Amino acid sequence: MLLTVSHLSKAFGDQPVLRDISCGLAAGQVLAVLGRSGGGKTTLLKILAGLETPDAGAVLLEGHDLLPVPPNERQMVYLYQEPLLFPHLTVFENVAFGLRIRRVAKAETTQRVREMLAELDLGAHAQKGPHQLSGGQRQRVSFGRALIIRPRLLLLDEPFGNLDAQTRADMQQLFLRVSRQHQITSLFVTHDSREALTVGTHFGYLDQGTLTSFPSVREFIQDPRTSIAAELAFWESVQQTGH
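The line above is the sequence of Putrescine transport system ATP-binding protein; the predicted structure tokens follow.
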């Protein structure tokens, strides 16, 4: 296992947010965690990223205790809904940022950034500023900046939640293609069941601080809490009535 989470608990005051959570991720897997707002999804990601400290439990990366490791040394990237780009830097320099602070040679940085921009269909926008881009383009720049440093683990907190439906669908497909190509291991939290099904290779449901992991996609769909089976039945009935 690349990532092992064991018996993780966290409360804020007398309010439990995570209750005895355990899960694991092998290299290249995408764990899609579905849950409503306030269920503890963001707190889980923040603990993994090192931005919150759990009250109990362990987090291991390839068997090494991660909890004492500072956030900047965890080899993880945390992506939010808001693509937090540097407004004064071009698209090229935003994507290059992580390589520059790691002192990667200039020629290698240029080559890797150009390849990443081409992969994300951003080559024509390399010299633009973030304010000149659409929401979907900004999110792609943010994605490229995260991927280029080859993180061990990508933490995604509803990253496409602010995008319109078509752009969101495009970003989901882009995420799938790029994460398969680069064998990226990800924990992707969302409140959208279709998004979870689209991006995930493994599935979980987080509700009131308790995580349920599903052995198969079928069991994930059939669990009434995910509402997926009911939604599929609804669309089937609509098609049958000829609308």
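Note on the example: The chain has two domains: 1-75+153-243, 81-150. The chain has eight helices and ten strands.
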